[in-house]
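Box 3.1 A note on notation
Throughout this textbook, protein chains are presented in two layers. The first layer is the amino acid sequence; the second is a token string describing backbone geometry. Keep the layers aligned when reading.
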Amino acid sequence: MIRGDLSMLDTAPLQHRLLDHADHYARWSGLAIGLVVAQELSTLGHIEFEQRVVFCLTAFGLCAVAGVLLADALTLRPQDAVRTASLAPRLVRDHVPPRMGPLIALQGVSLVALLVITAATASVDGDRMFITGKAVDITCNGMRATLGPWPGLYYSLPMFGALAIATPTCVWALRRIAHGPGEEQQRRDRAWAVTGAWGLLVSSQQLYAVLMISVALTETGCAGTLGAITFWVFYPLALLNLFTVVWSLVTVVAPRAVEDEDGAPGDE
């Protein structure tokens, strides 16, 4: 009889520990599944290389977002006694990274603007509408030249689709976290993980779009103005996005690994 009671006492903490770490497993599983899906998409031989890369980045980013959202749903809420809430309202901006949050939001806006510009400047072929936006036409030394690959609609439509799905979902999750129950540190970890997942999707897509533009602009003999734009604008932007990709990946894996001393103070 005593042995049975001890068994029950040992089982309950074990189950609680498993549930307590379910959010970690969900985030890591999202990244792992994203890698598997990206690997499968990379083997689609009937699709050209540039499009396969777009599909891989989009699938990996969406899986990362899905894993973080699942982790947030599995996060245990405190079961302690009722605590008195502060009169100060909780704001989303108080739970996202104070430095990287605005930067990632700015990168999201700039990504949309960049994709709109490249879609508008891409060459249009009325006879082949399904491949419109793969290149851009320029005039070089009085002669017409076609540069590519260019992130027009042919490549950017999957990016737009991923942003249309992930952005409102992540915004809803951040509002839910900010106004929902939980300790301040727990809400912060959840909000930073969501921000990192969205940042991973945005920065990886923008990094590839910038690389496509840089390759297209530097392969022409008219290196003057186009070369200067590439050197002073797109190369630094690529480095910035590479930094954001690394930061976002670390944040999804372990939000507390990027602890910020200027984090929002607790409100409880």
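The chain is about 65% helix and 5% strand. The two ends are 44 Å apart (CA to CA).
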